[in-house]
Amino acid sequence: MAWAAADGEVDVDSAEAGLTVLLEACERAVEEIGSAVPPAQLRALLIIGRSGGLNLSRLAGALGTSASAASRLCDRMQAAGLLTRDRAAASRREIVLVPTESGRRLAEWVRGRRRAALGELLAAMTPDGREALARGLTELAGV
Predict the structure, then answer these.
(1) pLDDT tens digits, residue range 18-62?
(2) Could you tell me the pTM of the whole model?
(3) CB contact at 8 A, 42 and 33
(4) d(Cα 114, Cα 112) in Å, to the nearest integer?
(5) Range of 59's domain?
(6) Residue 80 confidence (pLDDT)
(7) Most buried among 40, 91, 92, 143, using CB within 10 Å?
(8) Which one, of 28, 80, 86, 24, lies nearest residue 54 by Cα?
(9) For residue 81, what are the contacts with CB-CB under 8 A and spacing of at least 6?
(10) Local confidence band at 7 (pLDDT 50, 70, 90 cut-offs)
(11) Does 122 fall in a domain?
(12) Number of domains the chain contains
């Protein structure tokens, strides 16, 4: 699959096709969850878990939503036992969102399933393709 067009520009169509394969593999990996945890809650849980805990405005920014929408999402996640709201150690006025043990286990399970799915895709690629994809994804993660 060529990622650069003849004129040196990025072939966005090919890149999008590759991204679709990755996204579908990740979605299939966690289909067992079904509707028990809605995708928005799972996404928020993964963001919170990756940071170890963050405040509501940072979560809203990461989700690309308003603070009030993120707060309602967190209300539902708290009711489901996936997160708690704790006072920040540095500022008693700031509230920090922290995954519960159940939320941490779920996030770890999802990441493990995604890694396994990615591993299967990588195993089917050539060594050069694996190296290029890993390099590109690492660079993308730093953006």
Answers:
(1) 888 888 888 888 887 776 888 899 999 999 988 877 999 999 999
(2) 0.78
(3) yes
(4) 5
(5) 12-116
(6) 95
(7) 40
(8) 86
(9) 100, 102, 103
(10) low
(11) no
(12) 1
